[in-house]
Amino acid sequence: MKGLLIKDLELLKVQKQFFFMLIVVMASFTFFYEDTSFILFFLTFSVSLLSVTTISYDEMDNGSAFLFTLPVSRRLYVVEKYVLAVLLGGGAWVFSTLWLCAGGLIKGTTAVPEQLLSAVLLLPLLLCVQAFMIPFQLKFGGERARIAIIIAIALLTCAGMAAVKVAEALGADIENVPDRLPAEGMGAATAFAFAAAVLLLLLSVRIGISIMEKKEF
């Protein structure tokens, strides 16, 4: 797996301009806007999605067929992509959280505890996105994978909005639920969401391995 990780990191070096653009966007938002929580979502998900681009690089010019002539199993290949996604997303999450907290302290606009709470709540969502995007990329590849991911996200968004509308129709006060929950309740809810996201990611790994083992090159 170490060799595969080194290969993918070397592939990502060609995207230096992309990383430079991310830093410019982060600096701009930090300087011009008071609410900089967007940075946390933007950087974390943008960098995490780079793991999918390495699959596209591998498939170029029939590269996958050559790759599997080496002592690399399909199972190991899939697992490495998930490890890479977690490393990239986790690294970007840590960096953006520190950037956000530092910016909030310097500007005095947002309290650090609020920034940390937003960061912690983002982790389960990050794992869920990774659980969806990698199997889609392995199954469809390239443009079709991006279209499938967009459709899936749209369906999930519509389902979430419908659930909120139903709850509001039944008289539930959704917006004030977090304020009414004690700290222990919020902690338990966050832990449950994180555990569910990890289980979903593990299931996604199994699905990704199954897709890869059936794929022909």
What fraction, in percent, of the residue positions are helical? over 70%
Describe the sheet with the most strands. none
Mean pLDDT: 75
Please write the string of helix (H) and strand (E) elements: HHHHHHHHHH
Helix and strand content put the structural class at mainly alpha
Taking pLDDT < 50 over at least 5 consecutive residues as the criterion, the unreliable ranges are none
Rg, Å, rounded? 19 Å
Q: How far apart, in Å, are the first and last alpha carbons?
A: 21 Å
Overall geometry comes to: globular
What is the count of DSSP helices, taking H or I runs of 4+ residues? 10
Number of strands: 0
Strand content: under 5%
Report on the structure:
There is one protein chain. This protein has 217 residues and is mostly helical. 84% of the residues lie in helices and 0% in strands. The protein is built from ten helices and no strands. The chain has helices spanning 2-12, 16-32, 37-48, 50-59, 63-67, 74-107, 112-140, 142-169, 177-180, 183-214. The two termini are 21 Å apart.
